[in-house]
Amino acid sequence: MSREAQLLERIAELEEENRYLRQLVVPVDALPASWGLQPKQTRLVLTLARAQGWVHKDRLRAALGKIKRDVDDRYVEVCLHHTRRKLKPLGVEILTERYVGLNMPRDSRAIVLAALDAVMTGQVA
């Protein structure tokens, strides 16, 4: 592989990593205040909503700011439980598939992304 091809491949890898890291950087007030989400819950919801497919718990752990593997999965589960309870009345669902990860159905994803867009454009207080 030529030096130029190696550099182009590395650029593509860095761009993908940059896209992933940008998803983790979310303002704490990115979703409507009426939803009552804590900052970590907001990061969880947006990580799932922006994902294309199933999300592994390691990615959610990173979104919560818990990078180390030794952080108990129970922490993620508790945060998910409280988040699901707050989102249920809004029609937003988070699915869990054992040994696969978590996912947000298309209609739930649409609700979250529409709310994010409304907040970011100043249409919702």
Helical residue percent?
55-70%
The chain-level mean pLDDT equals 85
Strand order of the largest sheet: 1-2
CATH architecture title? Orthogonal Bundle
Oligomer: single chain
Stated plainly, the CATH topology is called Arc Repressor Mutant, subunit A
State which percent range the strand residues make up: under 5%
CATH class: Mainly Alpha
Descriptive labels:
125 residues, mainly alpha, Arc Repressor Mutant, subunit A, two-stranded antiparallel sheet, 2 strands
Written account of the structure:
The structure is a single chain. The mean pLDDT is 85. The chain is mainly alpha-helical and 125 residues long. The protein has a single domain (3-120), classed as Orthogonal Bundle (Arc Repressor Mutant, subunit A), CATH 1.10.10. The chain is 57% helix and 5% strand. Strands 1-2 form a two-stranded antiparallel sheet. Helix 2 (39-50) packs across helix 4 (73-87) and helix 2 (39-50) crosses helix 5 (106-120). A hairpin with a 3-residue loop joins strand 1 (95-97) and strand 2 (101-103).
